[in-house]
TrEMBL record:
<protein>
    <submittedName>
        <fullName>Methionyl-tRNA formyltransferase</fullName>
    </submittedName>
</protein>
<dbReference type="InterPro" id="IPR036477">
    <property type="entry name" value="Formyl_transf_N_sf"/>
</dbReference>
<dbReference type="InterPro" id="IPR002376">
    <property type="entry name" value="Formyl_transf_N"/>
</dbReference>
<feature type="domain" description="Formyl transferase C-terminal">
    <location>
        <begin position="205"/>
        <end position="306"/>
    </location>
</feature>
<dbReference type="Pfam" id="PF00551">
    <property type="entry name" value="Formyl_trans_N"/>
</dbReference>
<dbReference type="Pfam" id="PF02911">
    <property type="entry name" value="Formyl_trans_C"/>
</dbReference>
<dbReference type="InterPro" id="IPR005793">
    <property type="entry name" value="Formyl_trans_C"/>
</dbReference>
<dbReference type="InterPro" id="IPR011034">
    <property type="entry name" value="Formyl_transferase-like_C_sf"/>
</dbReference>
<feature type="domain" description="Formyl transferase N-terminal">
    <location>
        <begin position="1"/>
        <end position="169"/>
    </location>
</feature>
Amino acid sequence: MRVVMFGYQTWGHRTLRALLDSEHDVVLVVTHPKSEHAYEKIWSDSVADLAEEHGVPVLIRDRPDDDELLERLEEAAPDIIVANNWRTWIPPRVFGLPRHGTLNVHDSLLPKYAGFSPVIWALINGESEVGVTAHMMNDELDAGDIVRQEAVPVGPTDTATDLFHRTVDLIAPVTTGALDLIAAGQTEFTKQDRSLASFFHKRSVEDIRIDWTWPAADLERLVRAQSEPYPSAFTFHRGRRLEVLAAVVSRGRYGGTPGRVFYREGDGVVIVAGADARTGHNQGLAITRVRTEDGRELSATGYFTSMGGYLTSRP
């Protein structure tokens, strides 16, 4: 098939690589300009560079809604558009242009975790698996019929970085497998159960600010979800920002006020956590590694030289 590809960052790069390695003919690539957004500077392999290396024409767009783009698409005469990590709405006159429509590749197990940063949100929420879905695009974001979907398990110590590498490796087989079905003439695919759908927004500074009223298990997953190279989860100690690089749920149960720097346990320092921590039924978050405002990385026992005081959400 003749394929036009819409995509950005490493997700789009892996998709384009899979298409270039396939039996299909990539006739045009549309990608976004470089961004200074914190999360868009991560996993930023260039789709444009890969396309140009293979002699594929490239268009740079923030939004795919201008007449020139539509004209170029009509000239390219694709049988299908394949999209992955395209960051803005694709209008019907674009996604409906090819005879086979548009196949969107999304890094979640749809219908759950439509939208942005699905792997991070899924890890924070304690999901047991994550994955990649190829679905036909329609008027509603990430809501079309599922052509192919693959999952990988989430382990108890997995970070978002671990899960990124595991899910990005699914892009090629999911994309080419879906295209094989479409090229073979299949047109009926799996409807999404919209009663299970959830939609998540882009990550921002507010989403990595530690709230000590969260249960320790939730905070431990937040720390793992904000693994390098993502911005680290942070709190404040004595008015200064403190990044939490590693932590585990405490073995013991600790009562008191959320945020209290309380007790050394093993290699960690336990912080009281949970809105109902005063009951004494809660486990705490045992921080094991931190980064200070001036960039020093320290063990928690090396940083907290005495117990007492509080970690807070704001200075």
